[in-house]
Amino acid sequence: MFPDFSLNQEAENNPATRSKPETPEQKEAWERYLKTRLSPAERNRLESVLLGRIKQHKTELEGMLATMSGHWTYEDHFYRYYHGSIKVYHAQNTTEQAVKLLRELLPERELNYSFSEIISDGTGREFKVEHNENWDRNTRPILEAFAHAKFMVEMAVRYVDLPEPPQPMPSGYAALLYLYNLR
Fold first, then answer.
1. Count of CB atoms within 10 A of residue 47's CB?
2. Alpha-carbon gap, residue 135 to 59, rounded angstroms
3. Which residues lie below 8 Å from residue 23, measured CB to CB, with a gap of 6+?
4. C-beta of residue 141 within 8 angstroms of C-beta of residue 123
5. What integer pLDDT is reported at residue 22 of this predicted model?
6. Where are the chain's structural domains?
7. CB atoms closer than 10 angstroms to residue 145
8. Please, where are the H alpha helices in 4-134?
């Protein structure tokens, strides 16, 4: 999907030797990637803005994490999945609230495509009786979206008190940057 890495600068600078996207999916992924590219200075500026906004929203982020970690959301939603209960569909509300908060942190940037796909696949679902015929296919995406949203909120809370971008960079902080296409 992306050009192969090479230590041979001459080959790397020659467009004829670079690997090119071949399938429509690869071309689409390449175009998405190109749209998210930033200069190092702009990336650093936006990372600082993100850290500042995480600090500004500390109370809301901590509240959201507490909600997402609580019995009636975290425990109960997963229990409802295993129990085969329609109540697993309620996890979508919390997921949507978390994603809304995450978008508010850096509205200048689109959220990561993979994250957005996971959220799209796991929200906006309405229970239908025929969903019982393939329970896993219809409900696991709801919990997957919830788990990814919870992870990102948790990483924002974990790194809220950073005075500046860390080096070396912890994996959770790097994942949070990926959410905003800053890595």
1. 20
2. 36
3. none
4. no
5. 83
6. 40-179
7. 27
8. 9-12, 24-36, 40-56, 58-69, 76-83, 91-105, 113-121
Measured distance CA(113)–CA(104) in Å, rounded: 17
Q: How far apart are the first and last CA of the chain?
A: 17
User: What are the start-end ranges of the E strands in the chain?
Assistant: none
Q: CA 123 from chain center: how many Å?
A: 14
Q: Which two tokens stand for residue 63?
A: 């509240």
How buried is 110 (Cβ within 10 angstroms: 0-12 exposed, 13-18 middle, 19+ buried)?
middle
**pLDDT tens sequence across 70-126:** 999 999 999 999 999 999 999 999 999 999 999 999 999 999 999 999 999 999 999
- The reported pLDDT for the residue numbered 58 is 98
| Rounded Cα gap, residues 108 and 110, in angstroms | 7
The tally of CA atoms less than 13 A away on the side-chain side of residue 29 is: 12
φ, ψ dihedrals at 42, nearest 5°: -70, -40
